Amino acid sequence: MLKRVLSGDLPRSRVLATVLIVIVVALALAPFAFPGAKALNVAAKICVFIVLVASFDLLLGYTGIISFAHTMFFGIGAYGVAIAITRMGPTWAAVAAGVAVALLLSFALSLVIGLFSLRVKALFYAMITLAVASAFQTLASQLSDLTGGEDGLSFKVPEVLTPGFSLVERPFLGVSLNGKLLSYYLVFAATVVLFLVMLRIVNSPFGRVLQAIRENEFRAEALGYRTVAYRTASNVLSASFATLSGALLAIWLRYNGPDTSLSFEIMIDILLIVVIGGMGTMYGAVVGSAMFIVAQNYLQDLMKLASNAASGVPVLRDLLHPDRWLLWLGVLFILSVYRFPFGIVGKLRVRALAKR
Amino acid sequence: MSSSATTSPDALPEIRADRIPLLLVPALALLAMPLTGSFSTWVTLTFAGLAMGMIIFIMASGLTLVFGLMDVLNFGHGVFITLGAFLAVSVLGSLAGWTVSERMLLNVLVVLAAMVVAMVVAGAVGLGYERVIIRPVYGQPLKQILITMGGMIVGEELIKVIWGPQAIPLPLPTAFRGSVLFGEAAVERYRLIAVVIGLAIFAALFWVLSRTKVGLLIRAGVHDREMVESLGYRIRRLFVGVFVAGSALAGLGGVMWGLYQQGVTPQMGSQVNVLLFIVIIVGGMGSVGGCFIGALLVGLVANYTGFLVPKVALFSNILLLVVVLLWRPAGLYSVGKR
Questions:
Q1: Rounded distance, CA A121 to CA B338, Å?
Q2: Spatial separation of the C-alpha atoms in residues A147 and A76, rounded to whole Å
Q3: Is position A318 within any domain?
Q4: Mutation target among B67, B149, B271 for the A interface, most CBs of A within 10 A
Q5: What is the dihedral of CA B130, B133, B134, B140, to 10 degrees?
Q6: Chain-chain contact of B321 with A323 (C-beta, under 8 angstroms)
Q7: Which of A32, A57, A103, B214 allows an S-S link to A61, with CB 3.0 to 4.6 Å?
Q8: Which residues numbered 81-140 in B keep a CB inside 8 Å of some CB on A?
């Protein structure tokens, strides 16, 4: 049963399995186990990033394509929901219309970009997507009538998902069962479903061809696979899942602007997570997102302590400054690329193999 | 092949013959003249575009040479630009008396000092960067992109550690401020200086590449690396030299870019990186001449469209890229086998 759900791609390491179970259980029980608005926000952000990073892993880890336009599709999803609700009012029809239009736009864009530029080398693709993404970000902040410009759009979600809506009068286990809770579980359920679908895709015959292209494109082509078609399909799929994760983010935040979904900083976050978590493993997205988002929100508190402790030492104090947390993750990132190319997940799997 | 190049350095028919891209810059300038309306506006805009283009060229030249020689694309190139700009802040700040002095000589000296410091430090950092970041991942494009991105993240954070995360103003020294009048056209003094420095750098690069033994080896290496190696030259060592020179040029470009914008931020390098990629793709990856023309085109188009249709100006670079690639898919001057 479990094997079917996970598409036969089990964690293959006892430690990894334990970590994954802890993460999933923690996310599933987050509203009850970790009360407070910040904790719930962190949990929801982890969910959104799991889908976003897994969709990037489909492209980078499984097909071997580096795209810097991934946040563009993330942003399209978020703006789709935001614009539709702003125009049509907070109804489910608006959400559905926003997601549908966003998916269509992402589909068309990723298809065009893919067909035009996936024939060229990895470097060119990386550069061209970087240029396209930065142009799109400018476009989004310029079309202020539609997108709200730099300020972004704040909007209402369907009433069922608002904190004002209560399911039951009395609180359950000390937590009021309101729309915010429903909203969180919507995000959580969507994350589980989307992740399992992606796991299914990478473990299908189609996914095997993608991996073959990653390992040796020339050989895959010689075997009779039209690699351009497969690479484009991978690009489109990855863009679609990123769009859906963007829609989830917008529904959760009830706000969207250029900095929350389109900025290059998010692109860098995605890269860091997928590489540190483990490229080409899917589970790396789960482990990496959980670790990264928790670090982003709580590592700074820890660093503040360390920085205060080292306040006498001038350089060390600055290096441990809470705002410099990205420095240490960047170092970890570089070490990951050198030392364990399959990230934390790959490392754990290799250890499990060695023990056997 | 480059057999003609080894016998006599003057005979390089396939490069000499292609002069059409050379006409693009004057053609674009002439095309813009009737559109801008008045002649003096046109002069001002053209100089602004040329100045911007020259600075972009200085920043991008190292990037394109490094790519041409070893197929290494440094996504962290922007860090050297930021480094140069922040070093300029430090130098100009520590010699503040010279910066605000009325005497032109002191003004020029302080800017020269900033440039020298920026080039030396950026070059030295480039040496270490090549050793730690780039050397372990030669020939692995995917890892290379990832690792140089990592270099950019860490470098930017280190700059924040040293200089702080905030934007710092970088005012021009007294003698560099103000404008010069050509008839009715006002041209900012610093832009004139930028054009002169850019031309000097281009001339120096051109001389080194076309008139010296090292330049010959670099050009031959860009064209066909294996052949040069099989002739017994250590292309790796040459590459380290080019990488250091490219980093130093990025540092110099950073000083000039910072002065051009009259302020520096830790993100300025990664922001301008996109522009540099567009320039080197337009020019043809690995071609210094193409990079020069591409940079001037980007600068001119940005300034003309900024004046004529400001909304389009934000996307002028992408438009330029598309138009050039439709005409020549490998860039203005395609180099070697790419």
A1: 10
A2: 11
A3: no
A4: B149
A5: 180
A6: no
A7: A57
A8: 133, 136-137
Of A126, A264, A323, the CB nearest to B145: A126
| Residue B308, strand partner residues | none
Structure tokens belonging to residue A273: 């997570």
- Which residue, among B74, B153, B279, would best test binding to A if mutated, counting the most A CBs under 10 Å from its CB? B153
Strands B179-182 vs A153-154: parallel, antiparallel or unpaired: unpaired
Residues A207 and A221: their CA atoms lie apart, in Å, by: 15
Answer whether A324 sits within 8 Å of B154, measured CB to CB.
no
Helix axis angle, B39-70 to B288-308, nearest 10°: 150
Is residue A168 situated within a structural domain? yes
**CA A121 to CA B225: how far, in whole Å?**
18
Residue A83 lies in a domain: yes
Enter the pTM of the model. 0.86
At B167, the amino acid letter reads A
> Is the Cβ pair A324, B161 closer than 8 Å?
yes
- Inter-chain CB proximity B153 and A330 less than 8 Å: yes
Work out how many domains chain A is built from and give that number. 1
B309 touches chain A (CB under 8 A): no
Residue A182 resides in a domain: yes
Residues of chain B contacting A62 with CB distance shorter than 8 Å: none
Residues of B in contact with A149 (CB under 8 A): none
Q: Give the fold, CATH level 3, of B3-327.
A: ABC transporter involved in vitamin B12 uptake, BtuC (1.10.3470)
Q: Read out DSSP for B323-334?
A: HHHHH-TT-SS-
> Is the CB of A324 less than 8 angstroms away from the CB of B160?
yes
B157 to A327: CB separation less than 8 angstroms, yes or no: yes
d(CA B192, CA B203): 17
Instruction: Determine contact, residues A123/B73, Cβ cutoff 8 Å.
Output: yes
Are the Cβ atoms of B165 and A323 closer than 8 angstroms?
A: yes
Reported ipTM: 0.81
Q: Which residue of B has its CA nearest to A65?
A: B142
Flag if A123 and B73 touch (Cβ within 8 Å). Answer: yes
The whole domain housing A224 covers 2-265
Distance CA A282, CA A195 (A): 8
For residues B204-213, one letter each, b for 16 or more C-beta atoms within 10 angstroms of the residue's C-beta and e for the rest, the string is: ebeebbbeee
The H or E element containing residue A256 is strand A255-256
CA A268 – CA A287 distance, rounded (Å): 17
* Smallest Cα distance from A118 to chain B, Å: 14
What is the pLDDT tens value at each position of chain A, 356 positions in all? 788 888 888 888 889 999 999 999 999 998 888 888 888 999 999 999 999 999 999 999 999 888 999 999 999 999 999 999 999 888 899 999 999 999 999 999 999 888 876 666 677 788 888 888 888 988 888 888 888 888 888 888 887 777 777 776 666 666 677 888 889 999 999 999 999 999 999 999 999 999 999 998 899 999 999 988 999 999 999 999 999 999 999 999 999 988 888 888 899 899 989 999 999 999 999 999 999 999 888 877 787 788 777 777 777 777 777 778 888 888 888 888 888 888 888 888 888 888 77
